[in-house]
Amino acid sequence: MDLLSNKWIVNLLVSWFFIASLSGNVGVLHVLESEENVDWVLGTGANPPYLVILESALFTRSIMMKLKNGSGRVAGVAVIMPNTNPLEGFSPHTSCPNENTGVYSETYDPSLAHCNVTVWNPFGNGLSYEEFDFPIFSMKDDNDTRVIRQCYMDHNRGVNGSVPQYPLCAMQLYSHMSAVTDTATCMRRNDLNLSLSPEMICDPLGDYNVWASTKPLNTTAKGHKTGESVVVAAARLDSRSFFFDVAPGAESGVSGFISLLAAASALKTVIQEAPPNRTIFYTFFQGETFDYIGSSRMVYDMENKQFAVDLDNVHSVLEIGQVGLRADSKLWLHSDPVSRKNDSVNDEVKKLITNLRSAAVNLSVSVDVPNVSQPLPPSSFQRFLRARPIPGLVLEDHESSFTNRFYESMYDTADHLNMSYPANLTQEEQLEFVTETAKALTEVATLVARALYIQAGGAEAQLRNINADPEIVTRMLYGFLVRTNNTWFQQLVPSDLMSHLADRPTNFYVGVAQQSSEPTLLVQYLLANMTGSHFNISQGNCKNQRENEKDEESKHMYSYMWVQGAAPPNGTERQGFCVRSTVRLSKALSPAFDLKEYTSKDYSTWTESRWKVIKGRIFLVASPDLEMMTLGVGVGVLIASLLLTYIMSSKADILFSSGREPANATY
Fold it and tell me: Which range is the signal sequence, renumbered to this chain (predicted)?
């Protein structure tokens, strides 16, 4: 039986990897029933190697490390995904995320480095960063899984402690990865590939950052913009889990970037009517999970005058982090104690704190600062501080350690954000239903929008006119965490993006730097629709980035996107239109790969191995004795047939000759 629609762990390289056989890893199925049962697999089981089936409750670091250390008797592992989240916390990330590529180091207050003051992710077990020499799959708890369990019960489970008899149920996992050793080795082999059709063995992780400005900026003229001052409003887009293609990121990423998108939408009208002195720069970073790929690239480009603005143009930074699980309706304002030793930076940080407190007036959410001096939590802002002291804050729902018990795990889902819908609602009704989670994030978005407006120099008298829309927030939550294939997303994207929409949540794994991912494209079009305007030009001019046939200048200041619009109630022909906005994409590829510094300590060096076939199957396997006997009989038959063939060939003239008739014979 072939197994389809399952997930697997992909070989991600920095300096470690896992090995899988080119012909697939084969083992006798064993459903692990308790942690004590591991000793049977690793020691007394009579039919190794085993392919271990783990219920989600047993997918722990202690069990996985035991299986890893006894890998000579383990051919692979398949984890059965639960339908509900566990009560205990689980995070396969480290307890100190991105500790080696943030701002705190031996040269930037060593006492704050390596989470010496605050362990941000106390549930982090580091499982995603371990090296395994067998494939690891995850499986939905569905019909395929029930067939596997039944096969095990019928053939492999001994009765009353007896040894199971052959034939036994076995499983084969195909997940051969091309890359070996580490990033430096695989990139060097990529470079040395001299064939006419070179076959790459690994690719750098990466994607595109999404950004937009409240005032159009000439993107052709790179570098410093004289007289321009920008307030960077940042959030991260990506997430991950232990398994490839399962990265829901509800709290770790989605709560933050949805709040920023809703804030950008809330600011659109007031900025048109009463523009502030400074430009607000909405930025959505990709690849932050893997050592800040997106933010480090943007800072690198700013430093090297390869971006629309440079670091001299950056006035301050407000980053929206994990904001979906706040307790007591309180959010926390985290700042960097080292840069605040600079008086001018400290003064601007105090102003930003004051602005956020002013923005929270008459809202159900309040803000506060931590009681103790501690470093910044893992955040994109740290990459700006590595370049120079810049005033900034990171908005989080935790004062010290993460509130998120499932940071960067497969359990960080809509359920984790307490999203729920009344029974018997249709999909369209769920899309429009304003959940309690949406109401809470709407308040956060309003807070962020008002604070950004004041920070950019806007008048406080306008704050009452800045309010996020709960309907937009609830649609985004449904679209990203429940079903991307919904009527609202469909009308905001072009027709060629329809194939990316599916009846499932979005996967926020960053992927490799070859094309824009689904989250990047969706956020790009959402941001354009929320901050841009409908422009009455033809589809041809829109796609050619111009307002008319003679226009050669607008493309430097604006981007033009043709979207398919809403479907009419009684028809299928959509009324498409052009959206003009300042939304752009910029490369989110680590500078290490441009510099060919594959062992860099300053930039991310994550790569992903290439593969050809990922699949699994179950079958019955005969006993080794029967297999040897069958082989022996086969060899005996082969020898006998060869001997018989030789004898018949050597005596062919006798065996196959016929008597000759006389030449003068007559009839």
Answer: none
